Amino acid sequence: MREPNIPAALITGGVALLLAYGALWIALPTMGSLLGAGPAASAEITYEIVTTSGARELLTVEEADPAAVLMLAGERFGGVESLRRVSEEEAATGHGELRRMRTSLAGLFLLPIGMLVLASAVGDRQRARQRVWKAISPTLTVDLEELARATGLGRDPILKLVRSINRRGWAQLVVHESASRVADSRLSNNGINVDYCPYCNARASAHLKADLVHVPTCPSCMNEYPREQLIKQSEALVRKLVASPPPAPRGAPPRFSVGLFALLTLVFPPLAIVHAWRAAW
């Protein structure tokens, strides 16, 4: 089964947000000035005043003459020890607005970082799910230990991925703990006839469920009928079932939409992350 390339969308969205937030970070001093964080207009000049008591104050004036500034500062702050003209960025920082804006923006950087981390996790999830499906789909019935060896996954991750496959409507897999086997429940509605025992050639009249959860033994030689041979007899049935997956069950994950993801990334990135996570899990 093909899966949407959710990791690529997350990486693209994360990088785009990083670039946008980075550009905004660089432009903050200028924006702070325009928004009133620093001087109100380009003609205004900000000075740092050090009073005779050692206090530091900012004074924004339209007057460029230091003597006039000293007189105004003396009237406003009392004795003046020194004054220094500061840049717009320093002025904005001194007023505290630029610092507050950068603190808020720093929190936003968690969103693109979260997208990139989720892209890695989703990629791992999809690859693991595909490995499990690749091992199950040829027969729709497989021993759990064989499945673990084929996929390199542990029992618990396999069981979680089996449930994920069912939620997507790829199959109707049932875990038979007593038989340590995973099989599509639709196979149990179909049977396989065994006419003779391949070991002793004794005639048989066994009718087995195609899920092969329980395989009887030959009453003559007491050997279990070989599953490999029985699986070959059900190849046509398996191909039909794989080509006609069951309806997606209630609670199936939403279909991933690149357009919706892009829109949410522009409007409200947290919802874009939720959309990608729900579609992937």
Structure at a glance:
The protein is α+β, with helices and mostly antiparallel strands and about 280 residues long.
Question: Explain this structure to me?
Answer:
It contains eleven helices and eight strands. The protein is of the alpha+beta class and 281 residues long. Among the domains are: 45-95, no CATH class; 191-233. It has a three-stranded antiparallel sheet with strand order 2-1-3. A three-stranded antiparallel sheet has the order 4-6-5. β1 and β2 form a beta hairpin. α1 runs parallel beside α10 and α10 (258-267) runs antiparallel to α11 (269-280). The longest helix has 29 residues, at 6-34. The protein is rod-shaped, with a radius of gyration of 35 Å. The model is unreliable at 34-42 (pLDDT under 50).
N-to-C order of helices and strands: HEEHEHHHEHHEEEEHHHH
Order of neighbouring strands in the sheet with most strands: 2-1-3
Beta-strand share of residues: 15-25%
Our Rg estimate from Cα atoms comes to 35 Å
Class based on secondary structure composition and strand pairing = alpha+beta
Which ranges are low-confidence, i.e. pLDDT below 50, for 5 or more consecutive residues?
A: 34-42
Number of strand elements: 8
Attribute tags:
281 residues, rod-shaped, single chain
Write the layout of secondary structure elements.
Elements: H1 6-34, E1 45-51, E2 56-61, H2 66-77, E3 80-86, H3 88-95, H4 97-108, H5 110-136, E4 141-143, H6 144-151, H7 155-167, E5 173-176, E6 181-184, E7 191-196, E8 203-209, H8 227-233, H9 235-243, H10 258-267, H11 269-280
Antiparallel strand pairs: 1-2, 1-3, 4-6, 5-6, 7-8
